[in-house]
Amino acid sequence: MVVRVKNRLDQDTWQRLCRARRLMDQHYQQPLNLDRLAHQACFSRFHFLRLFQQYFGKTPHQYLTEKRIQRAKELLDASRLPVTEVCFEVGFASLGSFSTLFRKVAGVSPAHYRARFDQPRPLATPAQLAAIPACFLMKFGGLPAAAR
Prior knowledge:
single chain
């Protein structure tokens, strides 16, 4: 009987924490603070902070930052938005904070991250091209200049 009550409480805690995490997933671009997230989960802010870290292995701030940086990477890859607009689009209020956190997570600045994707990349290495039958290459794009 005690186990059943404890499991129900854990399930309830889990659902409340997931509700707060869902809020971060859906509204990461808005300013979210610990008080709002804790209110969403119906916990006090410090109890929410401890439980979130216990269940997800990171603080709500770390989770939100990772979410924003991940979205920024997607925008830098797929769009031509300036870095400043990407910064504000994903919910950062300061370009300096965004650049610092982005560099910390991705290892390069946002501009360098984008530059990596702007350079033309070879579709295949010479060794990979050698493994493709010549008839296939001729039918779907021709042979590279070195193989002719």
